[in-house]
Amino acid sequence: MPRLATCNHCRILQRMPDVHPKTPLVPAMLEWRDGEQYTYRDEQGLAVMVPAYDPVLEEFIAKHEHGYDDNKVIGGLIQVYQVDQRTWDTMDVVTQIKKELEQQSQQHYAEVDEFKESALKCYNAHGNPDIQTGCRDYMDDSKRIGKASYDDGEGRTITVPPKFRQYLCYLCPFQQTQINVELRRRKGYYKEGYR
Q1: Closest by CA position to 158, among listed 52, 26, 49
Q2: Residue among 87, 90, 91, 180 nearest 131 (CA)
């Protein structure tokens, strides 16, 4: 589902790519060093489920912690809004959330789409590649968003499986106009009479 993240320190509203659709879900939980745990629950009392791997959100949080304590970062300094696709398509969610944030804080929020802008800069820097020329660093680690593995704060290393990693390439015009079209062509979607 489409989502937006805000940093109330920087006063930005960032569009974020969603996680891979097959990413496993785990209960949203906080665990303190003394072993005490808290599980977030919905109105029905069921555990709120979140992606087990979310490198884009991890990257955003790493950039926007600004030296604050962990308990002030999530839900205070950084907020994430998840919107169903139908709502996203039928209304200007970004403008609505931006307006509400500005009313609450009396501060102006800048709307950014850092990942899409970075992908477009890369595409242009490579001379607008196509299927024949290809892209020299398509799906390369240098284009990965976030880390392949990270420390969970308790000394454990969490490795994001390759199929759940996110890349700028997913947002690049090369992916949208060349790779996706070529994959559809190979599957025969463009043959006359195909339904």
Answers
A1: 52
A2: 180
Helix runs in the chain, H state only: 55-63, 70-73, 85-90, 93-105, 114-125, 173-174, 180-186
Q: Are residues 87 and 63 in the same domain?
A: yes
Tokens, residue 126: 């490579």
> Is the separation of the CB atoms in 171 and 145 below 8 Å?
no
Q: What are phi and psi of 81, to 5 degrees?
A: -115, 125
148 and 95 share a domain?
A: no
**Residues 71, 132 within the same domain:** no
DSSP one-letter code for 158:
E
> What's the domain range around 32?
25-52
pTM attached to this predicted model: 0.74
Instruction: Please give the Cα distance from 102 to 24 (Å, whole number).
Output: 35
Chain segment 56-95, per-residue pLDDT in tens:
988 898 888 888 877 677 668 888 888 888 887 787 888 8
Question: What is the enclosing helix (H) or strand (E) of 26?
Answer: strand 25-27
Same domain, 36 and 64: no
Domain identity same for 138 and 82: no
137 in the same domain as 171: yes
Domain final position from 91, 112, 133: 112
The CA-atom distances, in angstroms, between 5 and each of 57, 103, 124, 171, 190 are 8, 17, 27, 17, 38
